[in-house]
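hey m, so remember when u said the tokens were messed up on ur end? i reran from scratch. heres the input so u can diff it against urs
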Amino acid sequence: MVRTEADVAEVFDVQPAFESPWLTVHKATVRRSADLSTWYYLDHPGCALVLPVTTDNRIVLIRVWRVSVRQWCHEAPAGRIEPTEEPIEAARRELREEIGGDCTELVHLGTVLASSGSSNERVHLYVGRNVRLGQASPDPDERIEVVAMTPDQALDLARSGRIEDAPTALAVLWAHERKLLHATMCDAS
């Protein structure tokens, strides 16, 4: 039996609890049967992520310092979708900004929820094919290192959990599964 939102809960009285130039946290009142509760969630416009594969079959990730987890993280270039952009346009923009990349084709892998228990953010995953690297122009407060590796190295990082950014790890695994990476590693599935 498929249950609808009305069967499970009624969400109403949604108000901003916190706003910044980059995000809004909403406070919602939720009714389940006769019970009322308060729920907070991050309201996010969405994100586009692109896994770059260069013309010489190298995977390009960035190593970026993330304040929220206080560590360096391996990630694919990604960023929020601006109000006037489509996800594919945001993917191209982020590729250009973060690694100076341009590609001949973007292949859509799928769309996933970043953290459904606390956010409505959807992450649109792409593979950039035949990426050519140029001059990056990251935001002034971003600390980014560009890291090129073989598909086997990227797969090893994703499979071992050393890529802790879930959308990036998933993009590597999905791209491999769909034969968009030319890895020599034996398929462990």
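this time it looks ok to me. The mean pLDDT is 91. if urs says something different then somethings off w ur setup not the seq
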